[in-house]
Amino acid sequence: MMPLDGRPILTAAAMRAAEEQIIATGTSVSALMERVGAAVAAQVRRLAGDQEVLILCGPGNNGGDGYVAARLLAAAGQRVRVAATGAPRSDAAIAARHAWGRDVEALGAAAPAPVLVDALFGTGLSRGLGTDVAGALARLAAAAALTIAVDLPSGAATDDGRLLSPVPDYDLTLALGALKPSHLLQPAAARSQRVIVLDIAVPVASEASVLARPRLSAPVVDAHKYSRGMVAVVAGAMPGASVLAATAAARGGAGYVLLLGGASDRVPHAIVRRRFDAAAIADKRIGALLVGPGLGRDERARERLEAALATDRPLVIDGDALRLLTPQKLAARKGPMILTPHAGEFDALFGADAGSKIDRARHAAAASGATIVFKGPDTVITAPDGGVVVALAASSWLSTAGTGDVLAGLVAARLAVNGSNAMPDPLAAAAEAVWLHGEAARRAGPAFIADDLARHLPEAIAACL
Ligand SMILES: NC(=O)C1=CN([C@@H]2O[C@H](COP(=O)(O)OP(=O)(O)OC[C@H]3O[C@@H](n4cnc5c(N)ncnc54)[C@H](OP(=O)(O)O)[C@@H]3O)[C@@H](O)[C@H]2O)[C@H](O)CC1
Ligand SMILES: [K+]
């Protein structure tokens, strides 16, 4: 099965536009539905074996896909029943139901089957399911051994990860033609254990894609510690956080890591410690200056942040520093910047507006001129020029203190390494860091502490060479 890495992510409107292009060139909606139904039926057949299949069909084209799949499964000898919310409404779905030609049960009265296929609603869902439909879906899903959603779990919005009504847990979602934001954004993404994209020969393109394993290279033969990428970490009131970040930067591939102004005695010897002063942070060899982990929000924190902003060095801004800034202030600064807010920091800096996490991160990048790593179980990375990368859910064990500091150090390392070879590409650097962070967590297993993550970074890097 094709991995999801690097795949484009399309909103409902973008998917509809791609579909319309194909239709304009002579493919009918029914022909497209036939293609979708065949691809769905092939997957269901592969997974269901000789178990009975119940397909739930809604009124639109998602339901139409269900009728086509039912017909093809029955023709292939599978035991299959269909239950529907009512009569289909679109022409293609009406034709598909007609071609099915067998009994259609009322959804509320349908008996369960071991394999449940949800073709109730897809990208056309406009509101939450009625309580009787949601109730029947929950009942039938709970009784099934295998639950499969066609395109999207019914009740999940397509574009922003919201659940418009209660959504059961699915074993598998068959994304038609392309991934949609809700296959990656929470809470919708967590409703499906697995997502497979079915190729339905509709060309798709998007500025947004799934975070892919980066391709990294070993240092060039004549590399030295400065040419490899130099990171400077500004310490503050809570020195442990900056030590975690500096350690992650060193393990994340930087050639030289400086810790400025910290007061901790548990610093790896490879990390160079200096006093914080304006000259130290203005060093032209610094490829990434990190400010924020453990910085605090006192007067000294403000001074250090102001000094960092006043340099022309590529800047990574995390944690407390994000609470001391405005988007306007960032926009006024020249030079590459990457911000790594979690949801609380993001809301405080950019406002708690409605909208999908992708759209909010995109607007934040445009407003601040910075690359944004909007962290969480569905990390979204956006660049001011519109590029978007969304990470698949990483280990939930990452929800522990200090992992954000590790990520910040890693972002700084990748920015410095990346900038040592060419013009820094903040989006690529942030994407490398998020991938390596997720991979290190996966390798660390359960119940790790943030300190453990850095030890797994070299293995994660080795997986990208
Ligand atoms: N993308 C492709 O290339 C292809 C996609 N296909 C499939 O088509 C669906 C999208 O089909 P569409 O007909 O636009 O939408 P849905 O089937 O999801 O549902 C729309 C109908 O449902 C009504 N509706 C919406 N929400 C509710 C609700 N909560 N309760 C009851 N009814 C609801 C809606 O009517 P309203 O006017 O009342 O909103 C529509 O009647 C896509 O997901 C794929 O599965 C094609 O097969 C071709 C290729
Ligand atoms: K569905």
From TrEMBL:
The keyword Metal-binding applies. Its cofactor is K(+); Mg(2+). Keywords: ATP-binding, Isomerase, Lyase, Metal-binding, Multifunctional enzyme, NAD, NADP, Nucleotide-binding, Potassium. GO terms for molecular function: ADP-dependent NAD(P)H-hydrate dehydratase activity; ATP binding; metal ion binding; NAD(P)HX epimerase activity. Its EC number is 4.2.1.136, 5.1.99.6. Residues 15-208 form the YjeF N-terminal domain. In the N-terminal section; belongs to the NnrE/AIBP family. Gene3D superfamilies: 3.40.1190.20, YjeF N-terminal domain. InterPro entries: Carbohydrate_kinase_pred_CS, CARKD, Nnr, Ribokinase-like, YjeF_N_dom, YjeF_N_dom_sf. Catalyzes the epimerization of the S- and R-forms of NAD(P)HX, a damaged form of NAD(P)H that is a result of enzymatic or heat-dependent hydration. This is a prerequisite for the S-specific NAD(P)H-hydrate dehydratase to allow the repair of both epimers of NAD(P)HX. Catalyzes the dehydration of the S-form of NAD(P)HX at the expense of ADP, which is converted to AMP. Together with NAD(P)HX epimerase, which catalyzes the epimerization of the S- and R-forms, the enzyme allows the repair of both epimers of NAD(P)HX, a damaged form of NAD(P)H that is a result of enzymatic or heat-dependent hydration. K(+) binds at residues 62, 118, 154. It catalyses: (6R)-NADHX = (6S)-NADHX; (6S)-NADHX + ADP = AMP + phosphate + NADH + H(+); (6S)-NADPHX + ADP = AMP + phosphate + NADPH + H(+); (6R)-NADPHX = (6S)-NADPHX. GO terms for biological process: metabolite repair; nicotinamide nucleotide metabolic process. Transmembrane segments: none annotated. This is Bifunctional NAD(P)H-hydrate repair enzyme. Residues 208-464 form the YjeF C-terminal domain. (6S)-NADPHX binds at residues 61-65, 122-128, 151, 241, 294, 342, 405. It comes from Sphingomonas lycopersici.
